[in-house]
């Protein structure tokens, strides 16, 4: 069983925005959200639009409204913190709103599809044991 295309797209976007580059020597991962967010106002606004794409994809795969509201809150909090000089940039390194939002989507999808995922896993296990 495969996750829906929208969830996979959201995962790819979140990884690009929050985890694309590993900072040498300290091993912390940052993404475009941090790098583009260094441009005052415009950078944060562009990254908010990218974050809203993940929320939009959640709607396309029928993630419930209450979860999408939480996702929107995460994106807006990240956006708002970006306006605080220096502190906002430091927070961007650690507060990975896009990854958090994708985790919310993943948890919802697994909960909704637990039976099918378990059956698929059992089938794969049986096939593996047969060989």
Based on the model shown, name its key terms:
mainly alpha; two-stranded antiparallel sheet; elongated; 131 residues
Report on this model:
- The chain is 75% helix and 3% strand.
- It has seven helices and two strands, in the order αββαααααα.
- A hairpin with a 6-residue loop joins strand 1 and strand 2 (29-30).
In short:
This protein is mostly helical and about 130 residues long.
Computed Rg: 17 Å
Strand order of the largest sheet: 1-2
SSE ordering: HEEHHHHHH
Report the span from N to C terminus: 21 Å
**Tally of individual helices:** 7
**Portion in strands:** under 5%
**Overall form:** elongated
Number of strands: 2
Mean pLDDT, rounded to whole units?
Answer: 92
> How would you classify the helix and strand content by structural class?
mainly alpha
Q: Unreliable runs, pLDDT <50, ≥5 residues?
A: none
Helix content: over 70%
Largest sheet: 2 strands, antiparallel
Write the layout of secondary structure elements.
Layout: H1 5-19, E1 21-22, E2 29-30, H2 32-37, H3 42-60, H4 65-81, H5 87-94, H6 97-112, H7 114-130
Antiparallel strand pairs: 1-2
Helix pairs in contact: 1-3, 1-6, 3-4, 3-6, 4-6
């Amino acid at each position: 069983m495969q996750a829906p295309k929208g969830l996979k797209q959201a995962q790819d976007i979140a990884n690009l925005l929050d985890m694309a580059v590993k900072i040498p020597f300290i091993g912390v991962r940052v993404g475009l959200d941090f790098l583009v967010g260094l441009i005052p106002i415009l950078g944060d606004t562009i990254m908010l639009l990218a974050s809203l794409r993940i929320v939009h994809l959640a709607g396309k795969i029928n993630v419930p409204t209450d979860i999408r509201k939480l996702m929107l809150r995460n994106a807006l909090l990240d956006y708002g913190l970006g306006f605080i000089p220096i502190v906002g940039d430091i927070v961007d390194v650690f507060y990975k709103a896009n990854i958090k939002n994708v985790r919310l989507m993943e948890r919802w999808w697994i909960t909704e599809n637990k039976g099918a995922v378990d059956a698929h896993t059992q089938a794969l296990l049986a096939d593996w044991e047969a060989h």
